[in-house]
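One chain given next:
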Amino acid sequence: LLYGAYTLNPFLVKVENVPMLVVEQGEVAVIKSYVGLAEEGGKVDVGKFMYGTIVHPGHSGSWNVALKTGKYAINPHCYQSEIVPVSIITLNWATAATQAHEWDTKLQPIEAKSREGFVFKIDLQVQIHVAAAEAPAVISMVATMHNLTTDVLQPAVGNHFRDRLQSMPAVKFIETRQQVQEDAFRHVSAKLEQYHVETKGVYIQDVVLPTQLVEVLTNREIANQQIETFRKQKEAQTQRIETEQQTGVADRQKELATARVGVEIKQKNAEARKAEAD
């Protein structure tokens, strides 16, 4: 009943006030009806919705048309609504959860081991999108958006990074982080596509390295920097020797020229004496 005046028999009818169903901008509401027609003809796309029964509005079951933005007078004893955001949803596998929703409050940084046994903690962010037309199909398979996060995304993402890390050395994971991120995007996209959910992005926010590995990498980098420093110093010394040699030659250039002229004069004098003797 909407607002207005009604003549009701209090011995037959009980009136209960409940809030109207409010669908905000950027959301749709998938309706599960417990009342209505139950004919088989109400089912739609049985092959597409193999995980649940989707029906036309007016039949009992999950309606194939979601409610758009607005307010609706829905009897909560006869209908159940599931709000589905149709904007981009950001989920964080991190200590800090997203404030816009509560679907990632139980998501924690992913823990995985490398081939050598080093334990990593990875802060991850995944962005997904549910189209308004696909919202009934999504809810028919996972029941709630919270289940989509806990039962689908969390195993898919966590197992992918655990399997990927265990197959490579820790240093290689650090060096090929961009490639690992791209592979994770393709893996998550393929997995969510089965549930009619679009993946917008998979981003590795931070990697918490084990203390032992940090010390090894730090010492290795210090050694590399020292090698580079010694090489530069050697080049500087070699250049200094060459410079000093050139400076010495330049300083004695006058004496060298005089000596060369003296040698030529003596050679000419010798030739003159030889010619005179002849």
